[in-house]
Specification:
Elements: E1 15-16, H1 27-43, H2 45-50, H3 52-66, E2 73-76, H4 79-87, E3 95-99, H5 104-111, E4 116-120, H6 126-136, E5 141-145, H7 157-166, E6 171-175, H8 187-190, E7 194-198, E8 210-214, H9 255-271, H10 273-293, H11 299-302, E9 310-314, H12 317-325, E10 328-329, E11 331-333, E12 336-340, H13 347-358
Parallel strand pairs: 1-10, 3-4, 3-5, 5-6, 6-7
Antiparallel strand pairs: 2-8, 7-8, 9-12, 11-12
Helix pairs in contact: 1-9, 3-9, 4-5, 10-13
């Protein structure tokens, strides 16, 4: 993986442990974006009209990358907008199960509507907590982040698959913004009914792009009213024959942003998601061992069999400022300091962070 680090100049002068906030812009994507805008500068409207095919190519590649029928892929500017559009078509009589203190853009859209809502606790027994709530509270919809934004707890995908098998009528909605691009996932076999994500974190595609993936059966549970000229592909006579996924695309989509998503997925494909997953799990294990030896992690994280590459360590402003002054890029989240690692990080990065922390303890 070392050869890919050269595409990210930020790594020449910092230890970047902040992908959970923003993924890095790489030189290959920058070159593509500059070429795109140069073509726009010279070509004007003709270039933009010709680039509409780029949107279809992006949709097709998203479908291939995650193993989802391209006709059930909706391209959205970000996960939050996609989820809110979707919830306008979900029956208010549904009983929703959320996770306590999940990402606000997952929980708030449900909480601001008239749903009956229950909550499962995020701790070492997360999957057991979810299953108990589904079993005892007549839950019909489960909505959750695949990776928790504050502490990095990662839900077991095999659990979601078995949960769907046991409760086939349960609609499972997942936010993959902190998962997709960091770990491999096969949507078709995952048990998840709706998977959405924004592209600016682990997919490294910049802001302004995201997607929603749907199973065939999902359309029967939703009544989406959103529409616009782009939903009908700018064909006046197609107003009443709009495909399900196009209801999530009422307005024009930006060729720069979704072309960036396409180019980023191509780069990730060239590296290989299995290789990226292997590297990130290696980084996760290294960080887990190092932070646990320094007694910096919550017991709920330590007792789980598998984790993401997001860690929230015990630390105050003094330690955060020390990390910042030592050129470690990270974030204050909750009561601690969040560090997150992607395939362009190394075990040496983690060793350096551990040594920086030791000097302040």
């Amino acid at each position: 993986m070392l050869k890919y680090r050269k595409s990210y100049p930020v790594l020449n002068h910092t230890i970047y442990a902040n992908t959970a906030a923003f993924g890095l812009l790489g030189e290959e994507l920058l070159e593509w974006r500059q070429s795109h805008d140069l073509d726009y500068l010279i070509g004007g409207s003709s270039m933009k009209i010709d680039s509409m095919g780029l949107i279809s190519e992006a949709r097709e590649l998203v479908g291939e990358f995650f193993n989802c029928n391209k006709d059930l892929v909706a391209l959205v500017p970000n996960f939050s907008l996609g989820l809110n559009l979707m919830l306008e078509g979900l029956d208010s009589k549904e009983h929703i199960l959320l996770l306590e203190n999940d990402y606000p853009s997952v929980n708030w859209p449900f909480e601001s509507r008239d749903f009956q809502i229950s909550y499962a606790k995020i701790d070492e027994k997360l999957e057991e907590n979810i299953k108990e709530q589904v079993r005892t509270n007549s839950v019909t919809v489960l909505a959750l982040s695949l990776v928790q934004w504050i502490n990095g707890i990662r839900v077991d995908l095999e659990f979601l698959k078995s949960l769907k098998e046991e409760f086939p009528q349960l609609l499972i909605i997942a936010d993959g913004t902190q998962f997709c691009g960091a770990f491999d996932i096969d949507f078709e076999s995952s048990g998840i009914d709706i998977l959405g994500a924004s592209g600016y974190k682990w997919l490294l595609a910049g802001t302004g792009n995201g997607f929603m993936l749907f199973r065939d059966s999902t359309e029967g549970r939703l009544s989406i009213k959103a529409t616009g000229f782009n939903s009908a592909n700018a064909v006046l006579t197609s107003k009443n024959t709009i495909p399900f996924n196009k209801h999530f695309e009422p307005g024009h989509l930006d060729s720069l942003n979704f072309g960036s998503l396409k180019r980023s997925l191509e780069i990730l494909n060239d590296i290989g998601m299995k290789e990226i997953t292997f590297t990130n799990e290696r980084l996760s294990n290294k960080a887990m061992k190092g932070f646990s030896e320094l007694d910096l992690l919550n017991k709920d994280v330590l007792r789980r069999p598998q984790h993401s590459t997001i860690f929230n360590i015990r630390g105050d402003d003094r330690l955060y400022n020390h990390l910042f002054e030592s050129n470690v890029v990270c974030s204050r989240r909750g009561n601690g300091i969040r560090l997150s690692f992607h395939y362009y990080n190394t075990v040496e990065d983690i060793d350096s962070i551990l040594e920086i922390i030791r000097k302040k303890m």
